[in-house]
Amino acid sequence: MDEGTADRKTLHAKAAIAKLAASEAAVRVIDRCVQIFGGRGYDRAYRVERLYRELRVDRIWEGTSEIQRLIIAGELVRRGTDVLQLPTGS
Ligand SMILES: Cc1cc2nc3c(=O)[nH]c(=O)nc-3n(C[C@H](O)[C@H](O)[C@H](O)COP(=O)(O)OP(=O)(O)OC[C@H]3O[C@@H](n4cnc5c(N)ncnc54)[C@H](O)[C@@H]3O)c2cc1C
Q1: What is the CATH number of the domain that holds 66?
Q2: Cα–Cα 20 to 30 A to 88, which of 36, 47, 73, 81?
Q3: Which residues of the chain fall below pLDDT 50?
Q4: Is the C-beta atom of 67 inside 6 A of ligand 1?
């Protein structure tokens, strides 16, 4: 975007894809970490408890996951799948 080469029309949906994928993946990972820690994962004395809370909110703020999906779906309906594909190798 800063380089001025990005397609502005699809940028919003591409950002939504990145935000959705990263925040959902992070929560899956930290959920597994809490599970591995067992009861300690729920204990505030351990950092995973705090990370769980901090990552959980990423699915909510700056646009919830449901809203990101609406943005992506709208763009897919309008422009099709090709324009939202990332370049090979990225
Ligand atoms: C710790 C924290 C800090 C924040 N900081 C800021 C800040 O600095 N600046 C700022 O502007 N905002 C901030 N927010 C607000 C944040 O952006 C909102 O919480 C977020 O956008 C969700 O809005 P909401 O809480 O009103 O939930 P709602 O919009 O009421 O959503 C509730 C649920 O309904 C779902 N939903 C809503 N509409 C639809 C729909 N059309 N289709 C399907 N599902 C839907 C949502 O996905 C969610 O699951 C902060 C929030 C938190 C928790």
Answers
A1: 1.20.140.10
A2: 73
A3: none
A4: yes
